[in-house]
């Protein structure tokens, strides 16, 4: 007869995440990213002080999943909206959660200037190298050779230009104190991503400046891969265009091992 | 032969699971397999292997599965 | 205590009035002929502990307004015609999300880059959208000076009362000219209406989400539009404003004009009075809601209506809706930033009275 063991729960849903099941595809990076953001907010005790701005993109309904105040923004304008919120409530915690179209195409100006002003806002940038919500068109982050519905035959540098590295561009600005690129393609990487997100949040709490974490995110549906294959594609292919690691860090924080 | 008790255990919410099977990928001890019977959304959800057969390692409650699960469908428990 | 009488530039007047009305957040971008407004507020906002940001564009500015509004602030932006085009997306979102905010348009010549002279060719844009979807924006048309100050107070009140963006339609002349003005007293921020819907962190309450996307299959967007329309119906019933001069039964002709065009028309009417011509003025102050019922009543008593606009004819369509065939309608318009003298407007009124088509034309209804 097996012994009756007593167990304690060590992993469950964070409070900053509502119990509602999401509409995200199986294996989508958004779901993991949402949970990491929620865990960090819980651990920092920020849920009731947070106002978030979702993108227009697959995460447009993020307010159905995140358990804190949220305001919709027109496509790309999240960082301008967040600026308005933060200037009214400088003592509250303001974050934006945006995809590649929202942050690096239509919202490029708002992104660069909020970052350059050093707005005390933390931005989570979900890079899946494609436009998910609208069905798989080319994104500014689509990598060379990658197929997309508006780049049939694959992204061609002469026809479509090269993929944009907005994180490196933002790092040039003095208003930006911390930029790191992580991925959501394995347990190890997801754990690193969480640390980066928490560090970005800490930048805002310590009034240092603008912070951004870019998360390379699998999109099985629009990449037409299984979730596992999508993980592998991030880990092996996507990182060639978007290498992981710290892009800028002038926070002065010691790395906690 | 007999099943040992596992140091950890997980509870998978069958209806929340979207059958991405990344947890199976992540588990270092091969404690999760696929339940081919569909849930109400039409996915084949992941399923915790309760029984440990000889030669197998048990669940340690490492929570790698839950960490990679996109749908917060897994709760993890560790023995006290 | 209201202020002393001051001589002030029109754009500065709007800025000072906004601050006194409790506005503590301004986001804008330079564009002639309203640069004086952001310049004034870049200093004045600091005086009162407010926030001024020169945004990177008019687009960014209207979105900062949206954010500050949802966070509960009294907030304003300003621009001129081409920049107001850029703001339309944000205004539509604010209307859909039911967010208050004040938008100042000091109109200039268009379309396109146009010129920087005063024009009034944004009537359609202001009153018929100009963003997408079924929504309305209350539009206030001051005729300069004191009214710029007074209507700024009204704009903030209307915006908060109805949770809607509100526009003040000025023009480059109004924005640049210095006129005497007495400001109402400062509003104490503590006396502002409390807002129980804002986002300020969910401490002690359920989290709130404010959005305009309603994708559901149960007719959510349909119902929301009905709700918005009910609000617009209330505004139409309760907030219409207009002014009349000399429109009693002896009037042979009534000029319909707003803003700067109305001021010039008023001088023209005085010239004609000296010649024994009895002409009146009907001056809409809310362009939306347009004072249709009042103009309709007036058109039953007056044989001729003369519409004068600083455009190719936009408000004239609302006049046609109001008047129909009850009176003869004449129209004269000057696009491209041309400002006539009172004598030139008087010539139009005389031509309309004679029906000779020498200045302007009869509108075939």
How would you explain this protein's 3D organization?
The complex is a heterotrimer of chains A (257), B (80) and C (365). Chain A is globular and about 50 Å long. In chain A, helix 1 (29-43) crosses helix 7 (187-205). Chain A is built from 9 helices and 8 strands. Chain A starts with 6 loop residues before the first strand and ends in an 8-residue tail after the last strand. Chain A is an alpha/beta fold. Chain A has a single domain (29-249), classed as Thiamin diphosphate (ThDP)-binding fold, Pyr/PP domains (Rossmann fold, 3-Layer(aba) Sandwich). Chain B has one domain: Alpha-Beta Plaits. The N and C termini of chain B lie far apart (25 Å). Helices cover 12% and strands 21% of the residues of chain B. In chain C, the strands form 3 sheets. A 7-stranded mixed β-sheet of chain C has the order 3-2-4-5-7-6-13, sandwiched between helices. Chain C has a 6-stranded mixed β-sheet with strand order 10-12-11-14-15-16, sandwiched between helices. Chain C is globular. The chains are: A alpha/beta (257), B alpha+beta (80), C alpha/beta (365). At the A-B interface, strand 1, helix 1, helix 7 and helix 9 of A face helix 1, helix 2 and strand 4 of B. Strand 3 (69-71) of chain A pairs parallel with strand 9 (209-210) of chain C.
